[in-house]
């Protein structure tokens, strides 16, 4: 791995999530994703969308939650397939969220994207909640993200999995008034922006909670 100014931060963030994974909980929440799932852009992991969803799950169920965040900074679909899914297969989560594919828009290959996403979905538990891509707001990446998000929505629904409309909720936040929702790099969400991301999962999470078995 090439060292950069990001490396100390990303290493620290990874260690923070590793410590969080060692905390016990009655329910297990596993996240698959990229730097957004790591919470890059927010100062604390609890302010990331994964942290917010864990808190929502605990609040709705009244049960403690262990979080295993398998995401990786810069991850693309191939990383999810090769590194994250094998780790997921060793766990028995009560909740799984997936938000990945934005980094694949750097050099988008539509056919490969659909093939890899289908393979990802095939390996998920039936209660997984899968998001499409966030809105890039302008340029070629947004054009590709629109097409990719439509494909994701179709694939997720064909599999009968729960869908989180991330592109739609982030697309609503256009214009200069949305700047507080972005971090200093104007790419990753801020703590405010992660609350928007969390809202994309909220409806599906509430349904998942209703389907959870009662505590013994």
Automatic annotation (TrEMBL):
GO terms for molecular function: hydrolase activity. InterPro entries: Ester_Hydrolysis_Enzymes (IPR051532), SGNH_hydro (IPR013830), SGNH_hydro_sf (IPR036514). Gene3D superfamilies: SGNH hydrolase. The keyword Ion transport does not apply. Keywords: Hydrolase. The keyword Hydrolase applies. This is SGNH/GDSL hydrolase family protein. It comes from Microcella humidisoli.
């Amino acid at each position: 791995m090439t060292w950069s100014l990001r490396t100390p931060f990303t290493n620290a963030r990874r260690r923070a999530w590793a410590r969080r994974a060692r905390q016990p909980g009655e329910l297990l929440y596993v996240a698959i994703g990229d730097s957004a799932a790591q919470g890059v852009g927010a100062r604390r992991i609890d302010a990331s969308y994964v942290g917010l969803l864990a808190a929502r799950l605990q609040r709705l169920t009244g049960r403690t939650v262990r979080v295993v965040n398998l995401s990786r900074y810069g991850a693309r679909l191939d990383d999810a397939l090769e590194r994250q899914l094998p780790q997921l297969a060793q766990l028995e989560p009560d909740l799984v969220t997936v938000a990945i594919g934005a980094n694949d828009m750097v050099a988008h290959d539509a056919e490969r994207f659909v093939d890899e996403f289908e393979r990802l979905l095939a390996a998920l538990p039936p209660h997984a909640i899968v998001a499409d891509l966030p809105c890039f707001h302008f340029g070629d990446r947004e054009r590709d993200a629109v097409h990719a998000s439509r494909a994701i929505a179709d694939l997720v629904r064909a599999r009968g999995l729960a869908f989180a409309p991330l592109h739609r909720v982030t697309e609503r936040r256009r214009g200069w008034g949305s700047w507080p929702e972005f971090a200093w790099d104007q790419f990753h969400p801020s703590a405010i922006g992660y609350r928007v991301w969390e809202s994309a999962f909220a409806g599906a999470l509430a349904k998942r909670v209703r389907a959870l078995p009662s505590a013994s």
